[in-house]
Amino acid sequence: MRLTSLADYAVVVMAAAARHPAGASLSAGLLAEETGVPLPTAQKVMGRLAAAGLLVSARGTGGGFRLARAASGISLADIIEALEGPIAMTNCITGSIHDCALEGSCRVKPHLNLANDAVRGALQGVSLATLAEAK
Amino acid sequence: MRLTSLADYAVVVMAAAARHPAGASLSAGLLAEETGVPLPTAQKVMGRLAAAGLLVSARGTGGGFRLARAASGISLADIIEALEGPIAMTNCITGSIHDCALEGSCRVKPHLNLANDAVRGALQGVSLATLAEAK
DNA sequence: GCCAATCCTACCGAATTGGTCCGATTAGCA
DNA sequence: TGCTAATCGGACCAATTCGGTAGGATTGGC
Q: Helices A109-124 and B109-124 meet at what angle, rounded to 10?
């Protein structure tokens, strides 16, 4: 139940980006310096955030990243899913993967489904706008 | 945000144990057969559950495990913590570990604290008694 | 006193993660 | 119009943790 450090960095970087005026072009170097995140790591994190559609990237001189949508429309769950994949406590939650030998006879799965929804809801309830607030 | 497969197995095994009469001596082999969990894995999982105080172990012939307390007094959070350690989304949540270079200047930590409490609360709200129900 | 059953500890291979480096692309300028 | 500088994008590599296995220690029964 711990998120990876890359996801952790992603939250910090996104919060820093949200403090800038909307639409501004933010390079990985700038945000790395503001947050203290090592530059190479920031690059990787922002690349994945862009691939997930949370950031829009522009290459070349003067390029950089900007938020794909308003900070209030991005949730903590969105950021975590961008780095770690779907929020699913167990493999059997996501309908596509079926590598659990117990599937079918498992008697706790329905209950875990409810618990998973509760966790996911808690993370979706936190918006990036909230995370960017001063304190 | 995904729990390890050992923690997943622990939930299944504990739920199976909770379906037996309270106080009965349950060997790892019995529960492994009932749940479909491989025996060596079940042994390891139950050993950790005993170390965490959720199960009480007895050695020797006729020995085995039994729940340390009533199923209604054991939460999903307890089981997960027994296998994975404290439920803390980030390292900086637990007061003892301080290996984050951003600490002190990090501006999102207070918000993550709230999110972490929400997740933990969701898991503490699910009792083993509920997990053991038929469906 | 011996034997069988059971739990406990230590070890090993494998997969994911975290980090680094180099190449591809674009805008600006001479 | 060609060149340079700046930036993103993808590929590679070491390290940590996870999952599984095997052997040893302990206890109760015959």
A: 160
The partner residues of B55 in beta bridges, in order of sequence, read: B67
Using CA atoms, how far apart are residues B110 and B108, in angstroms rounded to an integer?
6
- Cross-strand pairs, B67: B55
Q: State the average pLDDT for chain B.
A: 91
Residues 1-60 of A with CB under 7 A from strand D: 26-29, 43-44, 46-47, 50-51, 57-60
Cα–Cα distance between B22 and A29 in angstroms, integer?
60
User: CA of A57 and C1' of C28: distance in angstroms?
Assistant: 19
Interface touch B15/A107, C-beta < 8 Å: yes
- Say how far apart CA B85 and CA B80 lie, in whole Å: 7
Q: What is the pLDDT of residues A34-93, one digit of tens each?
A: 999 999 999 999 999 999 999 999 999 989 999 999 999 999 999 999 999 999 888 888
Model confidence pLDDT, tens digit, residues B87-129: 988 888 876 656 677 777 788 999 999 999 999 999 999 999 9
d(CA B46, CA A46): 41
| pTM strictly above 0.85 | yes
Check residue B71 and report its DSSP letter: G
Interatomic CA distance for residues B2 and A85, integer angstroms: 10
C-beta atoms of A36 and B88 within 8 A = no
- Which among A107, A115, A131 has CB closest to B76? A115
Tell me the pLDDT of chain A averaged across its residues: 91
Token pair of B33 as six digits: 């057969």
Pick the residue from chain B with its C-alpha nearest to A88: B2
CA-angle at B63, arms to B62 and B65, nearest 5°? 135
